[in-house]
Amino acid sequence: MYTVKFLRKVRSELDAPREERPFGSGWISGSVGLLAGIVGLLMVIALRNPSLTTVPQLAAVYKDVPFRIVLYFVLCAGFVLAALSLVLRKDKTLGGAAMAVTMLATMIGMLPAHRDYGVEGIFFGLDFFILNVLFTGALFIPIERIFPKNPEQPVLRDEWREDLFYYLVSSLFIQVLTYLTFAPSNFVTHTHDLGTIRAFANGLPWIVQFVAIMLFTDFAQYWLHRAFHRVPALWRFHAVHHSAKSMDWIAGARMHFLEIIILRSVTATPMLVIGFQESAIQAYTLLVYVYSTFIHSNVRGSFGFLEKILVVPRFHHWHHGIEKEATDVNFAIHFPFLDRMFGTYHLPEGKWPNGYGIAGHPVPKGYWKQLLYPFQR
Ligand SMILES: [Zn+2]
Ligand SMILES: [Zn+2]
Fold first, then answer.
1. In whole numbers, what is the pLDDT of the chain averaged over residues?
2. For the segment 125-165, what is each residue's pLDDT rounded down to a tens digit?
3. Are 104 and 139 within 8 A, CB to CB?
4. DSSP for 207-219?
5. Which residues is 321 bridged to in the sheet?
6. Which of 143, 198, 249, 307 is the most buried (most CB within 10 A)?
7. How far is the CA of 187 from the centre of ligand 2 (A)?
8. Is 121 exposed, middle or buried (0-12, 13-18, 19+ CB in 10 A)?
């Protein structure tokens, strides 16, 4: 119903009479942005499914680096033009539609391709980084502006360069990280015959698989995370993540490279070994990416009864709280019941922590110093 109405509105906006679309009214940017978004979406679909084309010669084109570079520019144009139109034009239909289509294309493009994760060169990582930042920024900056927990905190707050650099590094090495993430589960599936379990899991309804993946992953994540806090040698790595003094959409990116590898491979192992459908795993991968950004974001709100079932920003903000009562609490990233069950739950009604970081701030500033920090006496 709403979709039809919305599509009609997009059409009438595109057909707007000349006097309603002068230069600077956001009409040109909105229309061209929408076009870029649609073209990008088609290119992404072609890139991901070369078998869709009836011309075999074309399939080779999609694998080309230039094709990816063009795609990347098309999507960037979609983001920039959509944002421009949203700023300039009173009617947000065109800009909103352009943004939505571009985001959809980016999301599909970002889903990990399980079958070929060969290292494809550094450029893939670089464009991935820019799309990553544009996509997440376009999603979270407006939300943080409209519902800020801390309204005084600017987008470019203290140490934003450092956290953006963390973002860059993990995007750049996405292929390497993916490879290492798969290593433990590949080992298990090659050494053990899990055929019956895999067939059973694969036959479950899709949504059950999805929720099961969330549960298994969070359970593994809970205990690994707890170990990172309680084992002194591991804590030195995890302290880097906790050294962030401001919470927002880029704060969660701050994580020691070795921790990323260990965290991803351990938490992904149950879902990969159990053998859920690839589409459920891909959907979860996207969810966990957006979700972990969300729980670090500078977003207020109590979320009512949802707060009891799912992890919300206030819950994870307490995990990062600087006060004593916030030490070693709230390890879950999806389901707070894990913390209740294992005695680490802490969510005082309506209250937020006074500040973030580690008491005394022992971790030095800057990416390279933090990279070396765990290895120093
Ligand atoms: Zn932690
Ligand atoms: Zn965190």
1. 85
2. 566 677 778 888 888 988 998 899 999 988 888 888 899 99
3. no
4. HHHHHHHHHHHHH
5. 356
6. 249
7. 29
8. exposed
Phi, psi of 182 (to 5 degrees): -80, -15
Residue 330 backbone class (left: φ over 0; alpha: ψ -120 to 50; beta: rest): left
CA 149 vs. chain centroid, Å, equals: 20
Distant-in-sequence, close-in-space partners of 216: CB < 8 Å, separation ≥ 6: 270, 271, 274
Phi, psi of 356 (to 5 degrees): -125, 155
Q: Which amino acid is at 276?
A: F
Residue 16: is its pLDDT beyond 80? yes
First to last CA, the chain: 63
CA–centroid distance, 293 to ligand 2, in Å, is 9
Q: Do residues 370 and 363 lie in contact, with contact meaning Cβ atoms separated by under 8 Å?
A: yes
Question: CA 305: distance to chain centroid?
Answer: 24
Q: 242, 216, 247: which is closest to 328 by C-alpha?
A: 242
Evaluate the CA torsion angle 4, 9, 13, 17 in order and state its sign.
Answer: positive
- Å from CA of 152 to ligand 1 middle: 25
Specify the pTM.
0.74
Q: Tens digit of pLDDT for each residue in 254-304?
A: 999 999 989 988 998 888 888 888 888 888 988 998 999 999 999 998 788
pLDDT in tens, 165-218: 998 888 777 767 777 777 777 777 777 777 788 888 888 999 999 999 999 999
DSSP-assigned beta bridge partners for residue 356? 321
How far, in Å, from the CA of 236 to the mean position of ligand 2?
A: 15
Q: What values do phi and psi take at 367, rounded to 5?
A: -60, -50
What percent of the chain lies above the pLDDT cut of 70? 89
In terms of C-beta density within 10 A (0-12 exposed, 13-18 middle, 19 or more buried), how is residue 117 classed? middle
Q: How far is the CA of 316 from the centre of ligand 1 (A)?
A: 9
Task: Tell me, in angstroms, the distance from the centre of ligand 2 to residue 340's CA.
Answer: 18
Q: For residue 326, give the ligand nearest its CA.
A: 1
CB 210 within 8 A of CB 283: yes
Q: How far is the CA of 107 from the centre of ligand 2 (A)?
A: 23
> Quick one: which ligand is closest to 225's CA?
1
